[in-house]
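hey team, just a heads up i'm posting the complex here instead of the shared drive bc the drive is being weird again. everything in one block, sequence lines first with there labels, then the predicted structure for the whole assembly after. its two chains so it's a bit long, scroll down
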Amino acid sequence: MNIQFNKRDPIYLQVVQYFKQEMAIAHLKPGQEIPSRRDLANQLKINPNTAQKAYKEMENSGLIYTEGNLPSRITEDNHVLKNIRKELIDEATDHFIAAIKPIHVPLDELVDLVTEKYTQASKDKEDLHD
Amino acid sequence: MIEVKNITKKFGNKKILKGLSFTAKKGEITCLIGINGAGKTTALNAIMNLTPLTSGEILIDGKKLTKESYQTIAFIPDTIAMLSQMTIRQAMHFMKDFYTTWNQERANELLNFFQLTETQKIATLSKGNTAKINLMLGLALDVDYLLMDEPFSGIDIFSREQITSVFTSHLIEDRGVLITTHEISDIEHLIDKVILIDDGIVVKDFNAEDMREQEEKSILDVMREVYVK
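-- predicted structure starts here --
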């Protein structure tokens, strides 16, 4: 587990965001056990109080659950998992559109450009894995 | 909780602390930040009763400082207080003789963690390793509060990383830590509460996560607002 934290967003929200990403690509699987708050703090080099806050936030929004004294687990609720994926994609797309809109790029040109760059980026990633 | 209430301190005619007030809670990492000469070290010395105050008071868990307070609080100064001809083992024996709160098990664990051996002489240690031993000698005390004066100054990046990882481990957890620094970047992610000191008073006092959440500012952003005029 490795997160590059930025210094202006709350750390706990950055942790939650990271968990969402890992869940969206199923690196963290439904029902999978997650580290204790102390382990998480140690792995990410963050304050245990912050790790606790991140877990509380995820618990409240149903991303993880805890039964009794057992370790917390990733939710098995498919509805929640689907929503996370949608939320992440929406967020990133909105971000992109907000950045590109002031430049007035025609949609066709934009779609072509995205297709080209996206294909290239995926290819680069494959090469990296070889 | 450590409560520092309106303390003042004069050295001759020079006022160092001009009515300093702040608190540091158990289970939290509180960071005193200020440029050199702001009064950080004097504040720590005052909490440990190492320097007499001109006025004001300091309470630990609601009580005034007494001899017994030192069973609940430990001070890690910015230079090692052990004699340089001692080996690490001798330094640990020294601590054990003087402090009933000395926890040898934890000391061993820390030595292991820092990959240092107890037969090494303090005089032969590098600056970084001396800092680690200094930290080990303080952390091995079973106390509720730890005061640390500039634990990162003059230490290489890997030693700093090793020291910061102690902060997120069970070696610190649930204790109250009051740390002074002017190098914020190493521990920005670790701090609960920030107290900015300038010229002997507290100029700003905030929770780091709240600041990021409510004002989208990093600790450094706030420092810039306060110190750069």
